[in-house]
Design a protein that fits this description.
Oligomer: single chain
Low-confidence stretches: 1-24, 28-35
Largest sheet: 2 strands, antiparallel
Structural class: alpha+beta
Strand order of the largest sheet: 1-2
Length: 544
């Protein structure tokens, strides 16, 4: 699969639009030599196939490493002693891979979405139903809005692009204001919410509820933009509350009873998932999930030559955030020495040199290594594991997060709330984790809960961006006070239930406004001089 568009201004290189991916549901691979714009979009099935790549390969360069290097390392969840340390310490430079790969993935997604919108509008045949045309365009606008939401939260002002072909001759294009980008995002998700069905056309496809959940998330974030410190726009908060509640009441989504079950390949596209990237383990490069390769602490867990995660794990700070009783989420997210996983196995070399497969008992030293998205051997996953490849979905939005969005939107600008509905959904997240319900909640309670609930899901950095919008002092203070030093975990032998002693060696890295957001990739600044100009407002039209 070639890149659809690589953002290199003033000449944006146009690549051929190819489809890729495979699964039993809707990522069936279409022969590449059969796809021609003018004759391909002739049936409903072909139009839907045209959007299949939006669910995996266009996001690969972000999901592969940047999702956790940016989303978790910058967010204070992931520690690394050898890789991504600049994100841990907020010394990220404009030449680092994750800076460029994120930028490239997001603009590649935008380029492919624009191509789909153009192709459906221009080439869809008479046999294609109007509902499927709108569905495909809605999928593309959903993904385009999502890509822009990542761009604006990482790089701030960026160019808004809706016509790839115009970029070949346009030498005036420059950045658009943050306010314009947010308005563009909201419009794309609104279109998606209005034109996607309530029931997915195929398992794993996005729905009206996927878009409304994202609208709730985006309104909650935008509410703090350009407001005095500590305050947020009430209209946006009300919109976040409305959309979150509609999802909660009418989508049919429910929390999965067992938190650990969320992160098993057998439970892809479960009742809690509102939108997830769809990966395959045996497709073309870029259609698979590689997170296990980087995070499993050795190859005995994966069964292949990957499993390079021994030097990565939880930060000391996130370990201190776990309540003593929160063992369910901790164990599903981070492995402690002495932890046992009866649904994950490891390859063990016996004294006589033979090998056997046994239940995983963690003996990986004295660090909390990553468990989430580490799914184990092929035999643990109905065969769906290969070297650097698993089929586990990447969650982009779960109902649990919508519950917490709703609670925060209800609270609004108040310091606390005891609203019965807000507490109901906030406590649903806690009680699933085996924790006691609360009778009132503050912003800090919700911020903490989401940090634990969504740890190692690429979410936390964007929570800090949202906080920074309306309370930059607080965001910078929390980040600067995080303990990102070394620690030692010792399993208390014979303890039942298991107990551990943790010794911390605190280290803190100061974070200031100048280093909060990601820098533009140096290669883009070199080739795109207009990125250095002041951003301008975007002129909106009805047809985007």
């Amino acid at each position: 699969m070639k890149n659809i568009h690589k953002f290199i201004y003033p000449a944006f290189t146009v690549f051929v639009f190819l489809l890729s991916g495979c699964s039993k549901d809707f990522l069936e691979r279409t022969p590449l030599d059969s796809i021609v714009d003018e004759n391909y979009y002739q049936t409903d099935e072909q139009v839907l196939m045209g959007t299949a790549a939006l669910y995996n390969i266009v996001w690969f360069d972000y999901n592969d490493k940047a999702s956790f290097a940016v989303g978790d390392a910058r967010g204070g969840t992931l520690f690394s002693g050898s890789s991504w340390t600049s994100h841990v310490r907020f010394t990220t430079s404009s030449t680092e891979d994750e800076v460029l790969y994120s930028w490239r993935a997001f603009f590649n997604t935008i380029g492919q979405c624009n191509t789909i919108i153009r192709n459906v509008n221009k080439f869809a045949g008479a046999a294609v139903s109007e509902s499927i045309k709108k569905h495909a365009i809605a999928e593309a606008r959903f993904m385009r809005g999502l890509a822009y939401s990542y761009l604006v939260r990482n790089y701030q002002a960026v160019p808004i692009i809706t016509d790839n072909t115009a970029l070949l001759t346009d030498t005036t294009l420059t950045r658009n204001t943050v306010e314009s980008v947010w308005e563009f995002i909201i419009r794309d998700f609104r279109y998606a919410a209005q034109n996607l069905p309530a029931i997915p056309v195929a398992k794993g496809r996005i729905t009206k509820w996927s878009a409304e959940g994202m609208l709730a998330k985006m309104f909650l974030t935008r509410a703090g933009l350009n407001h005095s410190e500590g305050s947020r726009d009430q209209t946006d908060l009300d919109s976040a509350r409305y959309y979150a509640k509609d999802v909660i009441d009418n989508s049919g989504a429910k929390l999965v009873a067992n938190y650990a079950d969320l992160f098993k390949t057998a439970n892809n596209n479960n009742i809690e998932s509102l939108f997830a990237l769809q990966w395959v383990y045996n497709g073309e490069w870029g259609t698979q999930n590689t997170l296990q390769a980087y995070m499993a602490f050795n190859s005995s867990i994966t069964g292949f030559s990957d499993g390079w995660g021994i030097d990565h794990g939880a930060t000391a700070d996130i370990l201190k955030e776990y309540e003593a009783a929160d063992s369910i989420r901790r164990k599903a997210t981070f492995m402690f020495p002495g932890d046992r996983y009866n649904y994950i196995h490891q390859i063990v070399t016996n004294p006589d040199g033979t090998q056997s497969i046994e239940e995983l008992v963690v003996t990986n030293g004295n660090r909390a290594n990553v468990k989430k998205y580490v799914v184990g051997l092929a035999s643990d996953n109905d065969g769906r594991v290969a070297n650097m490849s698993t089929a586990i979905n990447t969650y982009m939005l779960r109902l649990a997060e919508v519950y917490l969005i709703y609670a925060e939107a209800v609270m609004g600008n108040a310091n606390a709330t005891s609203d019965a509905e807000a507490l109901k959904y906030f406590n649903a997240v806690r009680t699933r984790a085996g924790l006691a319900a609360k009778t009132s909640i503050t912003f800090d309670d919700i911020f903490h809960e989401k940090r634990i609930e969504c740890a190692m899901e690429g979410v936390q950095w964007y929570e800090f961006v949202r906080l920074y919008y309306f309370n930059p002092t607080k965001a910078l203070t929390i980040l600067s006070n995080m303990d990102k030093g070394n620690y030692t975990i010792t399993h208390v032998q014979g303890s039942n239930p298991p107990k551990w002693n943790i010794t911390y060696n605190p280290v803190h890295y100061s974070v200031d406004a100048a280093h909060f957001f990601l820098p533009y990739p140096e290669v883009e600044l070199t080739q795109a001089p207009n990125l250095r100009k002041e951003p301008i407002p975007y002129t909106f039209t009805e047809d985007l």
